[in-house]
Design a protein that fits this description.
alpha+beta; three-stranded antiparallel beta sheet; 6 helices; 3 strands; elongated
């Protein structure tokens, strides 16, 4: 007969393998749902709207880092020191807000939120299949809302850019209408708001930030 200690070791080993297999399947499926969601958000909505690829690495790397840290903190028993260490490392991440627009910061928040939701969403007492379907549904709702808000279905999309204007005559407050018309004649853009950034009295020019609605 097999010794009692050997039987217990076999049972413990089998249980550990089953636990590792279950965690591997869970993290794999959650990661797949997460990556599909982020790909649709960044490639299907963000890139289609703004045509920029320079922040792809930032968006995907932040999402994956948040996903794994959140999953690790949620699934694995960590010591207090380790948990505080991870928190300290994560708190060191900094972004210079003057180099990234509000829109880009909003998308950065979305990819972080999707990573967090994908990693920690658990429905108590539910079967695995329902839990993953619910997770995919939550991400789909986030993507749908982002798509609707980026479209012209709710409101017109406002854009802005900075131009160098070669005259100081029309930047006077009482000549606002003439300024808008002159900018339209020179650029073909119908502006609805103008903000003066800089005035160069030596060159007789100014730097204006113009706001307009995209058609």
């Amino acid at each position: 007969m097999m010794p009692l200690l050997q039987i217990e070791a076999t049972i413990n080993s089998s249980g550990a393998i089953t636990a590792v297999t279950g965690i591997s399947f869970d993290i794999g499926l959650r990661l797949l749902i997460n990556l599909i969601s982020v790909f649709v958000l960044i490639r299907g909505i963000y890139f289609k709207t703004y045509g920029r690829k320079d922040l792809f690495f930032t968006f995907f790397s932040f999402n994956i880092i948040i996903f794994f840290i959140s999953f690790l903190l949620n699934k694995v028993d960590l010591s207090i020191g380790t948990a505080f260490g991870l928190f300290a490392v994560f708190s060191m991440l900094r972004y210079r807000t003057e180099d990234i627009s509000i829109k880009d910061m909003s998308y950065l928040f979305l990819v972080i939120a999707i990573g967090l939701i994908s990693a920690v969403t658990i429905i108590k007492g539910s079967a695995g299949c329902f839990e993953y379907c619910f997770l995919a549904g939550i991400n789909a709702i986030v993507l749908f809302m982002a798509f609707i808000l980026e479209s012209n279905s709710i409101s017109k999309k406002e854009s802005s850019q900075i131009i160098v204007y070669d005259s100081l005559e029309f930047i006077k407050p009482e000549k606002k209408a003439e300024l808008f018309q002159d900018i339209k004649n020179k650029t073909g853009i119908s502006v609805h708001k103008v903000s003066i950034q800089k005035i160069n009295l030596t060159k007789g020019s100014s730097e204006l930030k113009i706001f307009y609605y995209e058609s």
